[in-house]
Each structure stands twice: as C-alpha cells, then as structure tokens.
Design brief:
0% strand, 81 residues, rod-shaped, 3 helices
C-alpha cells in the first residue's frame, strides 16, 4: 500500500487536491474489491493511511516542482541580463 500511494502522489501531485480525494475514495474501494475487509473502521483507517501516504508523494512532487521552477527563474534571469 505505502509505495503504491506514494507513487500515486508523485505522479498526480500537480493536482494535489484531486489526488488526496481520489486516494480517500479509491483505496477503500480496492480493499473492498480485493475482499480484504468489510469493516467500516478498517476501511476508514485504510482511507486515512492512503491519504497520508499520497500526501508524502504530493509533497515530494511539489518540492521538486518548486526547485525546478526556482532554477528556471534563476537561469532565465541570468540569460536575460
């Protein structure tokens, strides 16, 4: 679960709100479809963990995006002067 949802956050981190919402909805559906559990408390806990793991991926994505944008801005200023 952890690598899957972190990867999900890394790939779809640009749309972080939709990614977090999708993680909260999709992971419990995967648990139900895989016949892993039917307990509501387990599904709620799984959804919470899925959101936290996706948040890690989103944070990494947003951090890398910020660094790339900063480097591009510095390079643009250096070439424009």
């Amino acid at each position: 679960m952890i690598p899957t949802m972190i990867l999900f956050g890394l790939v779809f981190g640009r749309w972080w709100r939709a990614s977090l919402l999708a993680a909260a909805v999709i992971w419990p559906v995967v648990l139900l479809a895989g016949d892993v559990t039917t307990s509501l408390s387990t599904l709620a806990g799984g959804a919470g963990l899925a959101v936290l793991n996706t948040l890690v991926g989103v944070a990494i994505h947003q951090g890398v995006l910020s660094v790339v944008r900063s480097l591009n801005a510095v390079r643009t200023r250096a070439n424009g002067s």
